[in-house]
Write the structure tokens for this entry.
Amino acid sequence: ELFVSSENQRADYPRFFRKLSTKLAKAARELSRKVKFSNSWNRAKLKVAKIHQSIKNSRKDFLHKLSRELVTKYNAIIIEDLNMRGMSRALNFGKSVTDNAWGKFTVMLEYKAMFLGKQVIKIDKWFPSSKTCSICVNIKTELALSERVYKCEHCNSEIDRDLNASINIREAGRTLLAY
Ligand SMILES: [Zn+2]
């Protein structure tokens, strides 16, 4: 998923995008079996490059469309200011984070919002958005990455981890907007 919003919108890449990734893996495997610099190796190499390009283009189209939808719909968009490079190193998230789709997406959001006179507000990455209960505002001292459901020991609420965090980010942004 690219993001989970406080309205519980889960923005995921379209299915054709995953199909392309499978196609790419297959083409890369075929390429690895060819004799280097042979004609069939050249053809296989070109095929891999073409799929790469088409993944890049479809990702870009998807991010443009999604960011356009959001800035059209909302007057203010509040996001967590994530250090994706640091995060991918620390958590070993793999390609989805290292290709920096989130970074590109936030840049698109920012300039599209600016163009329409709307706001993108970034919440400091040290804000405990995941550890805070969005219902009673109690803050947990520990929250393992494996806990996908936030269980509050104070008010006994149970809520999806990402949804809980995004509600906290929205509220932090609202507080900033009120000043
Ligand atoms: Zn609570």
Summary: Residues 92-98 have pLDDT under 50 and may be disordered. Residues 127-179 form one domain.
